Amino acid sequence: MCGINGILHLDYKPVDQNQLVKMRDILEHRGPDDKGIYLNNNVGLGHRRLSIIDTSAAGHQPFTSDSGRYIIVFNGEIYNYQSFYPELKSKGIALKSGSDTEVLLHLYELYGMKMLHRLNGMFAFAIWDTLEKKLTLCRDRMGVKPLYYAIHKNSFYFASEQKALFTAGVPLEISENGLEEYFFNRFVAGENTLYNHVKKLLPGHYMVMEENGKSVTTRWWHLKEQIQNHIPIINPKKWFEETFFDSVKLRMVSDVPVGVLLSGGLDSCSILSALYHQNFKNIEAFNISFSEAEHNEFHLAKKITEEYNYFLNHTQLENENLYQNLFETTYFQDEPIMHLNEPHLLAIAKLAKPKVKVLLSGEGADELMGGYVRYKALKNPSLLKVISQISKFETFNKRPRYDKLFRYSKINNEADLVIFNGSNVYPNDINLFYGNKKKPENAYRHQVLSEAKELYPKDLQRQALYFDQHTYLCSLLDRNDRCTMGSSIECREPFLDQRLVAGLGTLDSKWMFTGKKGKFILKTTMEDKLPKEIIDFRKIGLSAPWGKYLTDYPIFKEELNSFAKSEMFDLPFMQNLDGSKMVKEIQKGNTKIIPYIMPLFMFHVWQKNYQKKFV
């Protein structure tokens, strides 16, 4: 696990070593154990290392091939790297280290990018070919590891985080389209970002950049094709248990201690159970608890760790500590936070740091197996039309969930029902709240939706799963990476093994949506391995009571007053908003305004803490 960065000057001028080093070292939190650079005329590569596999000096990067032709900087893990040892030995290759980076580079030398399909891992890497003078950037199937790039003043820059690009001199300019997506869809999907000059390399893609500036981007892993070409799964429950347990076992490959990010919910408890039933000992689990019962799963985490004789570490995050973690995560995230539990994840990573270097997370289970209650609304769209026409429904129940359902029911076409399913603000809300503002273009989202429709015609629930796997899940993975790496911890997601992702996509919907809470295949697999309280407990996730934080904690009350006068309200499409009025509403206890005010409040915090550092 590491931070990588690089520069390729397309006008052939020499790379400034100081510029390269500054880019590298602003990513020190991603790799405090070692650092290195490769510099040759107009190309430079930088690396910060968090030592996980082969912690010796033999794993130092940038790593050079035996021939001297290829130079690699690598971020991530290849979990099945040892399985290639016999093959490499048969070809006369003697390994000089125990690192997966060396194995990866040898596979590239032998097979080029055709080797990618054989890898089980999470990764983002760059390889410079000194002979053909071309730079290859690549990203893993699901986008677990981030990779950003920019072309500025005839130079190509790339890095694990945007802040390294800004440090190199790429201007921080907010994209109006990106800003719309952030406020209305919660995050910017696809290759675009919040910034005009910065792009993401898409998951499952690689890019080849030639020295003269010509580039070609290739989609090397296409989930729709993987699902369509998958062999039939005869016994889904048996297949799922064997594959899931093997995935968890693979992700224990490490030369340093591995722990579990344990919310207490079904997903993370299933990972802990898979470890227990495969005889892993002395596992450290890490949990954050809340004083509010409706947000708390600590008792479940405590129960299962005691039953398995594992160790539970837990923390709470309140008032000034929460405020401090909020500002820190805003810096690590590079964009305004969107899921609202980023500070809590950072707190767990800080708690874990003295004991482990790696955490296993249950991320991905909901998007693969239908774990969100919002998917239920797509089962019968005609019922939504009935709800939208019941004028008294809005006042029938003042709970936020019912208010959200009523607003969602106003959407009048199936495409938007899928596209806005993971949002908190819907097309009608955009008009009412922001004042005659059109919904975002969402070109990438429509592209993904068209793939989902081809794969699952007339099944809106399955379309939403496929859609989320390419959009919402990407934002969650980015959040996990930034919050854990902010404390120099590696995060691994067993549910995102490519065998599970593709295989689950082939199964009948009954394996997802049977029962009240979804994830039927996971529940039936684990029901004889987990306590009944965990199987039956209502889903909470790592939710946080932000309405309470803003009105009850003194330091947030003060920040809320600052927000009321924020300069953000001068932005083009925010001039109809009245910050003072919004603050008064939230102080009166109007919970319905929370979905609107939170992205605005977090944008204010980001402007104050992050934007001014790089502008």
UniProtKB/TrEMBL annotation:
Any one GO MF term held by the record is: asparagine synthase (glutamine-hydrolyzing) activity
The protein's matches in Pfam families, at most eight in alphabetical order, are given as: Asn_synthase, GATase_6
> Would you say which domain of life the source belongs to?
Bacteria
Q: Which reaction does it catalyse?
A: L-aspartate + L-glutamine + ATP + H2O = L-asparagine + L-glutamate + AMP + diphosphate + H(+)
EC number(s) stated in the UniProt entry for this protein: 6.3.5.4
Any idea which UniProt keywords this protein has? Answer: ATP-binding, Glutamine amidotransferase, Ligase, Nucleotide-binding
Q: Which residues form the signal peptide?
A: none
Q: Where is the Glutamine amidotransferase type-2 domain?
A: 2-212
Q: In which pathway does it act?
A: Amino-acid biosynthesis; L-asparagine biosynthesis; L-asparagine from L-aspartate (L-Gln route): step 1/1
UniProt lists the family membership as follows: Belongs to the asparagine synthetase family.
The protein in question is named: asparagine synthase (glutamine-hydrolyzing)
Q: Which organism is it from?
A: Flavobacterium buctense
**Name of the encoding gene:** asnB
